[in-house]
Amino acid sequence: QVQLVESGGGLVQTGGSLRLSCAASGRTFSYYTMGWFRQAPGKERELVAAKSGAEDITYYHDSVKGRFAISRDNDKNTVSLFLEMNNLKPEDTAVYFCSARPSTVIVHSPNLYTYWGRGTQVTVSS
After folding, report:
1. pLDDT of residue 87
2. Whole-angstrom Cα distance, residue 110 to residue 107?
3. What's the helix, strand, coil split of the chain in %, to 5?
4. Within a 10 A sphere around the Cβ of 96, how many other Cβ atoms?
5. What pLDDT sits at residue 76?
6. What does the chain look like in DSSP terms, one character per residue?
7. Which residue, among 85, 79, 72, has the nearest Cα to 38 in the 3D structure?
8. Predicted confidence pLDDT, tens digits, the chain (126 residues)
C-alpha cells in the first residue's frame, strides 16, 4: 500500500522557520521525482520544490529561492522528503502536499504526479 504522510506544519510568525517531513512507502520511491506542492484558498496548486531521484536535480519556485531547501533520504523501501522553510512570509500560507511521480523528470503540473499525501497546513502570521 502506497503511503505519503506529511508532518511538521503549524503556525509561525513572519520571519520564522518550519521543517516539513514526508515519509513515503509502498514503492521504490528512490527512483521517483518527489516534490512539495502548496495550495492556498482560492488558488491553484503550485509546485514549490522538487527533487529527482537518480539524477539529483532540484527545482525551486522563484518565490522561495534562497529561503526554502528540499532534501531527501533514499532507502530501498522508504524515502523521506524534507522541506526546510526559512524567513517565512504570510504569502507562504497554504496547505503543503508531498507528491511523487514515477519519472526522473521534474514537471510542474500536479496532474502528472501519481501519489499524494493528505497535506499539512502552514500558516504564517503577519
Report:
1. 98
2. 8
3. 10, 50, 40
4. 23
5. 66
6. --EEEEE--EEEETT--EEEEEEEESS-GGGSEEEEEEE-TTS--EEEEEE-STT--EEE-GGGTTTEEEEEEE-SSEEEEEEEE-S--GGG-EEEEEEEESSSS----GGG--EE---EEEEEE-
7. 85
8. 899 999 999 999 999 999 999 999 998 888 899 999 999 999 999 999 999 987 779 999 999 999 999 999 887 678 999 999 999 999 999 999 999 999 999 999 999 999 999 999 999 999
Helix (H, G, I), strand (E, B) or coil at 36: strand
**Cα–Cα nearest to 46, from 116, 110, 95:** 110
Of 35, 92, 30, give the one whose Cα is nearest residue 55. Answer: 30
Distance CA 16, CA 60 (A): 19
Phi, psi of 71 (to 5 degrees): -150, 160
